[in-house]
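Standup notes
- DV: blocked on the single-chain target, sequence here:
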Amino acid sequence: MGNQKQHWETVYETKTPEQVSWTQAVPETSLELIRACDGYLNKSIIDVGGGDSNLVDFLVADGCIDVTVLDISEKALERAKKRLGEKASRVKWIVSDINDFAAETQYDIWHDRAAFHFLTASDQINCYVETVNQSVVENLIVGTFSDDGPKKCSGLDITQYNETQMTQTFKGFDKVSCTTEAHVTPFQTTQHFIFCSFKKAQIEKSPV
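- DV (later): unblocked, structure below
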């Protein structure tokens, strides 16, 4: 974890939002998928790898009552808190590498845009999936670089996914939808993403 954490602390210490590729003024796809979840305003929501994303601002403005943002970088979360001002107190903030994260509660909605694809080793991916299986009770939303997207981000290798691979990875969930997004970066390049929304699979009870 040490090298990864230092990498991201340096990124958020030395670069402005306009200098990193993932910045979105309005995270439209993420918001659309979260807002499509039944009763999302009253659900527990976690944004994994949220960094200083603007997503939390919109969720708070919507009136969501239980929002958590998790990121490996403390500096990223500090920037988000500063931007939100007094509204930051409405959010739970967790500094953790996702593979070290031991959830103390379960979440109705798990959202991850562009954190999951930084996991490139099978044991990391399996750990993430196990955490999701244990921590998510209803909705899972994951956005990653698609198979025609970048192969690196912020100088780090990533794992590309297509719809079939996403569905096979999260076997404990039923696919609701998968959509592609052409994200235009602050420097006017285009990155291709795939966003998949899932519902927790219901275990059928055997007849007595």
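- Follow-up: The mean pLDDT is 89.
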